[in-house]
Specification:
This protein is mainly alpha-helical. 67% of the residues lie in helices and 4% in strands. Among the domains are: 20-79 and 213-283, 3-Layer(aba) Sandwich (Rossmann fold), CATH 3.40.50.300; 100-206, no CATH class; 286-354; 816-919, Tetratricopeptide repeat domain (Serine Threonine Protein Phosphatase 5, Tetratricopeptide repeat). The termini are far apart.
């Protein structure tokens, strides 16, 4: 008997009639005046019937409360998950049922839309039902006709004139606008978006009053967190609904359905929700409704229905499966009660019992892969069941227990699949898994690290899954080490992380947490966690590895008297831990660990000079972060000489040292040397790793910074945009390295006077870093300073001052009072006071910055010249030409020597000097 699709697709199977849910809803509606705002939340697993329940509740309103306005929003629609488009859709649905106006919201939304995408004309269809309100179309035309240059400008006066010439009732309506149009003009798009819910609510209340009889349904609430899991606070994404929309639409009843409970997180954010929200689970179906469902599906035999109901335990999937079984049996014989049982296991047994061997073998086979497409289906059929026709594929995929998981890829329902795996011959099951393991392993055998694609990633994941089912554990370990390595080299850390983590956990269960080889594998997992930016996890793992090594190496010392080997292993892990602390800005802690590691290595007789060079390189980088640039350069250059001699000039490890030396030269103001070194590192990496490796992204970003400093903004933009593109694809969204590429791109935008673009990049970088490292990390300092600089150049001095002060406090706390970064922020803060002509405040800040830079960088450094010029400008503005001219001339001399006559700093200094000489 061949498989055929079930007929039930012709008639929808519905799970509704929830008496408790309906009772709670009616009570909720009847007592709506108890609170200013309230919400009813139903939660339950997927497929439990939440959407159908909402339809039932809406029918109750139509029948019992016909005067009540209700609308429904489904977050399954991705446009409804965005604040602005959600509000537009909600407005449209309300206007279809009531003749109401949303003047204030429409105006704010139009300004928001224009600020978001100034290049796209406002579409009048976005603001329907305003045909009689010609004044609003005039506003849209005014916004569309305005020429938007680098600084977006809203035609405030023109809009105000249009409103003033509107009918009196409309003028009165706009007179109640809670914010001024001028303020909207001064706000960024994302700032306007935050207040749109409040403006919408204000319009709604103006139309309906504070005791409106209205109900708003929201379905598929869990979709609002799509792509946000693990990113920031769980409650952040729906904040605009929870804090801005619902509390301001007084008298409205909200009915929300989703998969997960949310009340605790809402109450945690706002205690009032304890009284204003009722939350109920949608339980398994009561027996009488399961019975009713089976009757409606055509199962007339009461004894069969009774057995199915008991076996299903109220879960809709089991009921569906039982109906499938009933329909399958009906095609060949009359179903009888004896064919069904009261346990889930026997229901599955009976399902496969009435299939012929071809059908059973096909389903057993298809239960092995996580998913399969037509090609894999054909390969499996030809290998394991050649008697089954491949042309039955289209009929097979129509079954309810087969779902399309992705375009052209299908999978058995997981409960069905699990049962089939459990109930088949284990030898056959292992045979299929082994075949699939080899099938996917062959796709990635001897793969070139520069040619890895998404298909290869999928093959790795699938091969590992089947390896766990088919290989002995020792064989699995060998396979993991061999096949993960190229993906690790290629920078596919997001892909290999869950695989390696799973394997390490399995190894721990088999060997115990103190086994030295478990420590070796755990160290490798820590590497991966570090690569993907999970530094706190990596630190925890490295600390565990140290304990394991110290305990096991101690035993080895007594047995073999081999102290050198033991110290070397412990020193390596200590250095690994130091690197992790360095990545999160804990520089002093990193330096201490690095120095301890170096001492251990130096105490070993005949120790490999290559490893000593590695430690020197890492210490040099730490010195650079601590502002000790000369010492950093000396150590790094020494390490580079050793590594080039022993590894060759084109080695990837040498590229690391070369790039570190480039960073140090950048801080020393040797920009041409820095650029040449960074370009050399990039050439090695692109040749060895390909053009889209995540390490290449960081290298490109470094070159972008240097181009920005050297006034090559076109080159800077090219490097930085490419870096962000790679980083966004290869790194996780909360990786600090991704944030750094965004921040460097923002700096280029800033110097190109594209301030809105700069702020957008900086804010994304800031949010990522804050989520990853907290609000007080030294890694935040540069981004905070850059945001402040952008606001200063936009003449938004209050915002600039706030960010400067935060950056300065963090820098002083973590880097010390005399760090070059502290001087940078003080200089910039002094520049703000120059802009505001508060020279008495600017002078001490710039003088302190000059003293720090002279002490730490030297008086011929570009940064010293920058501060010297600012100080000269201050003296010039207060009439002290005798002080101003020599300071400015010194700056001009340094700029000409270091940057050339065409650099923006050189031109500015020359203008200042010429002006002072002309006085």
């Amino acid at each position: 008997m061949a498989l055929h699709p079930s007929d039930y697709f012709r008639k929808e199977r519905v799970f509704v009639d929830r008496e408790t849910c309906i009772y709670n809803f009616k009570n909720f509606i009847q007592n709506y005046n108890n609170q200013d705002y309230n919400a009813l939340f139903y939660y339950g697993i997927a497929g439990i019937g939440k959407s159908k329940l909402q339809h039932k509740l809406q029918n109750i309103l139509n029948t019992e409360y016909p005067e009540m306005l209700w609308v429904s929003m489904d977050l399954e629609n991705d446009t409804h998950r965005n604040v602005s488009t959600f509000l537009i859709a909600l407005r449209n649905k309300i206007q279809k049922k009531r003749n109401v106006k949303f003047y204030k919201f429409n105006l704010a939304h139009a300004i928001f839309s224009k600020k978001s995408r100034p290049d796209i004309p406002l579409n009048k269809e976005t603001y329907p039902m305003l045909k009689e309100d010609g004044f609003f179309y005039d506003i849209l035309n005014a916004l569309n006709e305005t020429a938007f240059g680098p600084f977006l400008s809203i035609p405030v006066k023109q809009i105000a004139d249009i409103i003033n010439h509107a009918p009196g009732n409309i003028r009165r309506h706009f007179g109640e606008l809670p914010i001024d149009i001028k303020k909207l003009e001064s706000m960024e798009a994302h700032e306007i978006e935050k207040i749109l819910p409040g403006i919408f609510a204000a319009d709604f209340t103006s139309n309906f009053g504070t005791s409106s009889r209205a109900c708003i349904f929201i379905d598929t609430y869990e979709a609002i967190w799509k792509d946000w899991r693990g990113i920031g606070s769980f409650s952040e994404k729906d904040k605009w609904i929870r804090k801005c929309l619902i509390p301001n639409m007084l008298g409205v009843s909200w009915v929300i359905c989703g998969r997960e409970q949310i009340k605790s997180s809402w109450v945690e954010d706002e205690q009032d929700w304890e009284m204003c929200m009722k939350e109920y689970p949608i339980e398994d179906l009561p027996e009488k409704y399961s019975e009713q469902f089976l009757k409606e599906c055509g199962i007339e035999e009461k004894d069969i229905r009774n057995i199915i109901v008991k076996a299903s335990e109220g879960v809709p999937y089991y009921l569906n499966l039982s109906v499938d079984t009933y329909e399958q049996i009906s095609r060949s014989k009359k179903p009888e009660a004896k064919y069904f049982t009261d346990t889930k296991k026997e229901v599955f047994d009976k399902f496969v019992k009435y299939l012929d061997n071809n059908d059973k073998r096909t389903l057993y086979m298809l239960s092995a892969p996580n998913s399969w497409d037509r090609n894999l289906f054909k390969i499996l059929i030809e290998k394991f069941n050649p008697n089954y026709s491949i042309y039955e594929f289209q009929d097979l995929i129509k079954y309810s227990f087969i779902k399309e998981v992705k375009d052209g890829n299908f999978s058995l329902h997981q409960l069905m699949r699990k049962s089939l795996q459990e109930h088949q011959d284990p030898t056959y099951r292992k045979e299929v898994h082994l075949f699939l393991h080899n099938y996917y392993s062959n796709k990635i055998k001897d793969i070139d690290v520069k040619s890895i694609t998404q298909e290869h990633e999928i093959a790795l994941i699938e091969a590992y899954y089947h390896a766990k089912e088919a290989l002995k554990f020792a064989e699995l370990g060998v396979w993991v080490i061999k096949y993960i390595e190229p993906f690790d080299k290629a920078g596919y850390w997001k892909t290999i992380d869950p695989i390696y983590e799973d394997f390490v956990e399995a190894f721990k269960e088999k060997s115990g947490p103190e086994n030295i080889y478990f420590g070796v594998f755990l160290r490798r997992l820590a590497f991966i966690k570090e690569d993907i930016g999970r530094y706190n996890e990596a630190i925890t793992y490295y600390q565990q590895v140290l304990k394991i090594f110290e305990k096991n190496m101690g035993k080895k010392v007594l047995e073999n008297n081999n102290l050198a080997v033991d110290n070397h292993s412990i020193a390596m892990v200590t250095n690994d831990l130091a690197n992790c602390y360095l990545s999160i800005g804990m520089y002093e802690k990193a330096l201490t660990l690095q120095q301890n590691s170096l001492k251990m290595i130096q105490n070993i007789v005949n120790e490999d000079p290559l490893y000593i060079a590695l430690l020197q390189q890492n210490i040099a980088l730490t010195y650079q972060y601590l502002g000790r640039y000369s010492k950093a350069k000396e150590l790094c250059q020494e390490a580079l000489t050793v590594r080039e001699t022993l590894l060759g000039k084109e080695d990837l490890e040498v590229a690391i040292t070369v790039e570190n030396l480039a960073v140090i030269h950048q801080q020393l103001g040797n920009y041409k040397e820095a650029f040449a070194l960074a370009q050399r590192a990039l050439n090695i990496r692109e040749k060895k790793l390909g053009p889209k490796h995540p390490i290449v992204a960081k290298n490109l970003s470094s070159l972008g910074v240097l181009c920005t400093i050297m006034d090559n903004l076109e080159g800077a933009l090219k490097y930085n945009q490419r870096a962000v593109e790679i980083a966004e694809e290869k790194f996780e969204g909360d990786h600090i390295a991704f944030a750094q590429t965004l921040s460097n791109l923002g700096a280029t935008y800033q110097y190109m006077l594209r301030y809105d673009d700069a702020l957008e990049a900086y804010q994304r970088a800031l949010q990522i870093t804050e989520r990853s490292l907290g609000l007080d990390s030294s890694i935040l300092v540069n981004t905070l300073n850059n945001i402040a600089e952008t606001y200063r150049k936009m003449e938004n001095y209050d915002e600039a001052l706030e960010f400067y002060q935060r950056a300065l406090n963090i820098a002083r706390n973590h880097l010390g009072e005399e760090h070059p970064t502290v001087a940078l922020i003080m200089n910039n803060l002094g520049r703000l006071y120059i802009d505001t002509k508060e020279f008495d405040k600017a002078h001490p800040l710039c003088q302190q910055a000059l003293d720090i830079r002279g002490k730490t960088l030297g008086t011929d450094h570009v940064d010293f010249a920058i501060t010297s010029l600012d100080l000269g400008i201050i003296y010039g503005c207060v009439g002290r030409r005798d002080y101003a001219l020599p300071l400015s001339e010194h700056s001009l001399s340094i700029f000409e020597q270091k940057l050339g006559s065409d650099h923006r700093y050189t031109k500015q200094a020359k203008l200042v000097v010429d002006t002072l000489k002309g006085i």
